[in-house]
Amino acid sequence: PLPPQAPPPSGPRGFNSLRQDEVGPVGMEEEEPMGAPPASRCHPIAPPPPRRLTERDLMQIAQRFGREWQEVGIMCLGLEKSRLEQIREDHPHSLVLQSFEMLREWSRRHKAEATAPRLCACLRPASVDPGVFDLLQD
């Protein structure tokens, strides 16, 4: 059997000796500044996800495109000429509706990635109205 241990001293010294055995010297804990959350609970705040474009957004952008909408569709948005021809035939009297349908097609293809920053990046190489980029920044 193990030899018996002496009981701890009584009074405040006895309490401090117990605390030392359990957690180290009393009063030596590292303190965090008042009001600051513990480091283990600090998490960087994630930025909000990029804004998805609504049909209203797409219409406002389409209103700023001109006759070059098909070039934008092919060169910047990666759409096929045959699909753009179909859009033109579906809306023969309105360049705005043609442009709008082209943007909706792009949006459908990219689903959750059809965001303002992504469209802005796609349109950068094009000679589009600078107001388009203003709309995409809002």
From TrEMBL:
Pfam families for the chain: Death
BP GO annotations: signal transduction
Chain positions covered by the region annotation Disordered: 1-53
Residue stretches making up the Death domain: 77-124
Listed Pro residues bias regions: 1-11
Organism superkingdom: Eukaryota
Protein's name according to its UniProt entry: Death domain-containing protein
Organism: Strigops habroptila
